[in-house]
Amino acid sequence: xxxxxxxxxxxAGVAAGAALGILLAPDKGSSTRHKIxxxxxxxxxxxxxxxNEFIESVTKKFEEMKENAAHMAxxxxxxxxxxxxxxxxxxxxxxHPAK
Length: 99
Known about the structure:
99 residues; mainly alpha
């Protein structure tokens, strides 16, 4: 899923929760504001954790892709060296045919 959609969904959930908290609050205003502030901080912490997990996931995928590219480059380099060696052997045979 697109990370932008996830972030938008989380923010919408935070806003909806805050609105419901205000509407259904049995406590006085200062107590309600404190609870809303605390919930907002809790949601921000959770969002920060999710963001860090997302960054770690992207970093891990990037490192895996980098390693795969390095292995592929090594394999292709080895193939090129083998082909070059075959070409040298073939050129030597043409230059010095067996008698």
